[in-house]
Design brief:
The chain is mostly helical and 83 residues long. The protein has helices spanning 15-32, 38-48, 56-67, and strands at 3-5, 51-53.
């Protein structure tokens, strides 16, 4: 899965690590609130961090993995949330 930045400012961490933070947040939210729209939440979390996926199909696959309860690893999370 590839991501691109949507702002000209630096992310402060490697792109895949920033994406991992978004995935961890969505996974945690989905665990606590199963009715969450994982795909839309994932898009919003990535966007709030200055990223977007380069492929909708890859993003949908990532959302499906989260809904299925699979551990998704793109990078390292910084420990700011509990995975």
């Amino acid at each position: 899965m590839e991501f691109e930045t949507i702002h000209d400012t630096a992310l402060g961490a490697p792109v895949r690590d920033v994406a991992q933070e978004a995935v961890d947040t969505v996974s945690t939210t989905y665990t606590r609130t199963p009715g969450t729209d994982v795909l839309e939440d994932l898009r919003a979390q990535l966007r709030s961090r200055g990223l977007r996926a380069t492929s909708d199909a890859d993003l949908e696959e990532l959302a499906a993995a989260i809904r299925s309860g699979h551990t998704v690893r793109l990078g390292e999370h910084d420990g700011s949330i509990e995975p």
